[in-house]
Amino acid sequence: MARSPSHEEMSSVKKGPWTPEEDRKLIDYVQKHGRGSWHRIPKLAGLSRCGKSCRLRWTNYLRPDIKRGKFTEEEEQLIVHLHSLLGNKWSSIATKLPGRTDNEIKNYWNTHLRKKLMRMGIDPVTHRPTTDLSLLTSISSLLSAGSLGYTTSHLETALKLQAEAAHLVQSLIQALTSSSTSNTDLMNVFGSPSHTNYKASDGCLGGSFNLQNSASVIPYLNKDSQPVPDFSFCIDEGGVTASRTEEGQSTSSLLPSKSTPPFVSTSSEADNVDLLMSSESTYANSLSFTPFEGWENLNLDSLINDLGCKEIPDQMPWPNA
DNA sequence: AAAACAGGCAACCGCGGGTTC
DNA sequence: TGAACCCGCGGTTGCCTGTTT
């Protein structure tokens, strides 16, 4: 039940920044007597503060186990992930970051992480892409066509369909990221350090895109995000070009662009953070986003084969997750 | 050099839930 | 039973500092 501050509280309490002397008094008192009742601490400790202010000062600043300094990558990942599940439950989030206070996490979210997500085209409230997904509805036919196992005579069609898909993924990724965004950032946003969550089963699409490359060339990358020589998709004003280069000679096919990819979330709300953080359900594998789900049927390796490659590098295809 | 602006963060405020009397 | 008390949470404010004009 809400309670208005008493007249005494209103008239005598000091507000504003704490002085070192006040800090010392509060620390001395708590160290000698423990926390006890915050309501009584100001009087007993000789402070002209309300109990609430003392509690806040202690829990957010003076507590001995407070961790100072910049948030680590791991902490950032965890905050984003937990926020996607819990929303603005800062105290709950703080319980999973030892030494960090809810206030600190809240401030960090509001000043850094929220803006970072927005720059990447992610709605910081819903953790969904802000891209107009209504445009992304007619890809299923594209995908199914891409998974039918085209014969050589169907190469051009398959090439068009799948490179078109690549184009659309590229567009999507560009919507999700700024030019300064790294693969890691994207993975963080999607909640998992594992690229298996958004790779195509044959290893070409998904987390392997070089997101730091804001140009419209999509390299063909292996699971270690290393570009595989000779293969790329190039997006320019004229459309999509799938290319293979061998011994200085380039084989290319110019493709039109028109379709749309699916961008699927299988998000499910977690009941509580402990379940999510349990060993049986680590935050890595409790990932709620599988944004490239549905792309798994794409078989760009066979496409590359069709372009004339006889030897796919050892790293490919990726092992199944 | 100084004013204006922007970002970061500590602290405050109002509210709601739980407990006590 | 309900008023008073206490605590904690999330949202907001305002100060401080660094940067830009």
TrEMBL record:
SMART domains: SANT. One of its GO terms (molecular function) is DNA binding. It comes from the Eukaryota. SUPFAM superfamilies: Homeodomain-like (SSF46689). InterPro entries: Homeodomain-like_sf (IPR009057), Myb_dom (IPR017930), Myb_TF_plants (IPR015495), SANT/Myb (IPR001005). Residues 244-267 are annotated as: Disordered. Residues 10-62, 63-113 form the Myb-like domain. GO terms for cellular component: nucleus. Keywords: DNA-binding, Nucleus, Repeat, Transcription, Transcription regulation. Residues 250-262 have a biased composition (Low complexity). Residues 10-62, 63-117 form the HTH myb-type domain. PANTHER family: F14D16.11-RELATED (PTHR47994). This is Uncharacterized protein. It comes from Ensete ventricosum (Abyssinian banana).
